[in-house]
Amino acid sequence: REEKMAEAAEAMPSFCLPDIQDNPNGWGPSLSNLEFSKPYQPFSKADKLGKVADWTGATYQDRRYMNKYHSQYGAGGTLFNYHHEEDESSFHLVDTSRVQRPAYQRNRARVQQRNNLRRDRERREERTMQTLSKQQKGRDRDRMRMQRKWQKQWSGRRWNDQPRSQIKQRQASVEVQPEWKCVDEIEFSRLGALHLNVEPPTDLRTCGSMEYYDKTYDRVTTKSERPLKGVNRIFHKVTTTDDPVIRELSTQGNVFATDAILACLMSCSRSVYSWDIIVQRVGDKLFFDKRDNSQFDLLTVSETAVEPPQEEGSSINAPANLALEATFINQNLSQQVLSRGGKQVKFDKPNPFVTEDDETEVASVGYRYRKWQLGEDLTLIARCEHDGVMAGKPGAPEQYVSIKALNEWDAKVSGVDWRQKLDNQRGAVLATELKNNSAKLAKWTLCSLLAGSDAIKFGYVSRVSARDSSKHVILGTQQFKPQEFAAQITLDMSNCWGVLRAVIDICMKLDGGKYIILKDPNKPIMRIYSVPPDAFESDDDDEDDSDDDDDAQS
Question: If you placed Cys at 208, which of 97, 249, 351, 387 could pair as Cys (CB 3.0 to 4.6 Å)?
Answer without folding.
Answer: 351
